[in-house]
Design goal:
- The chain is α+β, with helices and mostly antiparallel strands.
- It has one domain: Gcn5-related N-acetyltransferase (GNAT) (Aminopeptidase, 3-Layer(aba) Sandwich), CATH 3.40.630.
- It has three helices and ten strands.
- Helix 2 links the parallel strand 5 and strand 6.
- The radius of gyration is 16 Å and the shape is globular.
- The structure holds coenzyme A (COA).
- The site of coenzyme A has 18 residues, from strand 5, helix 2 and helix 3.
Length: 180
């Protein structure tokens, strides 16, 4: 699925496209070196898109310049024992600094939620770092509520094969999806 979005402001902002990442997008996901350390992580995630376990959405300009991204892990874990409700987990949500505060993040999350509804998902969950107050505020405005706390301790192999450890205490948030 590919969607063209027109940011509300500023008026000179060009049309943007939301689409699934393809393999040739992987270098651009490193954001000119800022996220080079995630090269292996992204390559593994891209492999998981092939089996349908992961969705990697990107926002680009009409000239295919990378503007932002969000990834989704599709899970079928029951949240309530007596139901078949399914939850998906959103992560790596980022808009490039120059493009922030134009409503693009909100539109990207709306797109993800509409897509998940069509796939039969009922809940979206995510983690937000406790110190990331602006993202927390945005998620709350989008209808997410805090349901718990996570230690946020994980590790990954960087582009040089070195194990990097992350310690980022986070809030776990959830939103029940409802068709509009
Ligand atoms: C979090 C993030 C993805 C939000 O993306 P964004 O495109 O800036 O989000 P939006 O523009 O939709 O909303 C952000 C703010 O802009 C405001 N806004 C929305 N539309 C706007 C518009 N048309 N004009 C001006 N401001 C607008 C929103 O009210 C919101 O305000 P707030 O700071 O009071 O919450 C972005 O800030 C980012 O990449 N941050 C770094 C990475 C990160 O923290 N990711 C989240 C990890 S959990």
């Amino acid at each position: 699925m590919r969607k063209t979005v027109k940011p509300k402001s500023p008026t000179e902002t060009p049309s943007l496209v939301i689409r699934p990442a393809i393999e040739s997008d992987l270098p651009a996901l490193e954001w000119d070196g800022a996220y080079m350390r995630f090269r292996r992580v992204y390559a593994n995630l891209f492999r998981d898109t092939q089996s349908g376990r992961i969705l990697m959405w990107i926002v680009t300009t009409s000239q295919d310049e990378m503007v932002g991204q969000v990834f989704v892990m599709l899970k079928s874990k029951n949240l309530q024992s007596a139901s078949d409700r399914r939850s998906a987990y959103v992560f790596s949500f980022r808009i490039k600094p120059h493009w922030r505060n134009k409503g693009i993040g909100k539109r990207l999350m709306n797109h993800v939620e509409e897509d998940l509804l069509m796939r039969g998902f009922t809940y979206v969950t995510l983690n937000v770092a406790k110190e990331n107050l602006s993202a927390l505020r945005l998620y709350q405005r989008l209808g997410y509520t805090v349901i718990g706390s996570r230690a946020g301790i994980w590790s990954y192999k960087d582009h040089q094969g070195q194990v990097q450890h992350v310690n980022e205490p986070a809030w776990r948030m959830i939103k029940e999806l409802c068709p509009h």
